[in-house]
Amino acid sequence: MRRKWLVGAGLLLALIFVFTHLPEKSVPQVCLRGTTDKSRHVIVYGFLTFMLLKGLGAPSSQQVRKLFLGVVVIAGLGLLDELTQTWVGRTCSLQDWLANMLGASLASLTAIAWPADGPNR
């Protein structure tokens, strides 16, 4: 089960980097209609963090370490994503990165509270 979460996180990360590195006018606007740019950052990075943490499956005694690891990893990936967007004519935004971190933080707390998958999954 953990492997599925990690594969899902890897696929989502790939999609994030593909869509955020296309010129803005080329990105389809069909997903998440009715949301703001910042709420999309919170939602997408929240899902990414949640899937990463579920894939790591840290024992409950390591919950604080799990939370910290999830946020730090996603913070680095979000920063890399923002900084490299300038290569394709998009803007690097502190507000976008902060929205990414809000999503990562909320998802980390959710993943810790979520029932464990069990030791052999």
Key phrases:
single chain, 121 residues, mainly alpha, 67% helix
Question: What can you see in these coordinates?
Answer:
The chain is 67% helix and 0% strand. The chain is an all-alpha fold and 121 residues long. It has one domain (2-113). The protein starts with a helix and ends in an 8-residue tail after the last helix.
Q: Work out the strand percent.
A: under 5%
Q: What distance separates the N and C termini? A: 5 Å
Count of extended strands: 0
- What structural category characterises the helix and strand content? mainly alpha
Largest sheet: none
Mean pLDDT: 81
Low-pLDDT runs: none
Helix content: 55-70%
Question: Which H/E pattern describes the elements?
Answer: HHHH
Structurally, how many domains make up the residues?
1
Count, helices: 4
Give the CA-based shape.
globular
Rounded to an integer in angstroms, the radius of gyration calculated over CA atoms is 15 Å
Give the structure's gist in a few sentences.
The protein is mainly α. Helices cover 67% and strands 0% of the residues. It has one domain (2-113).
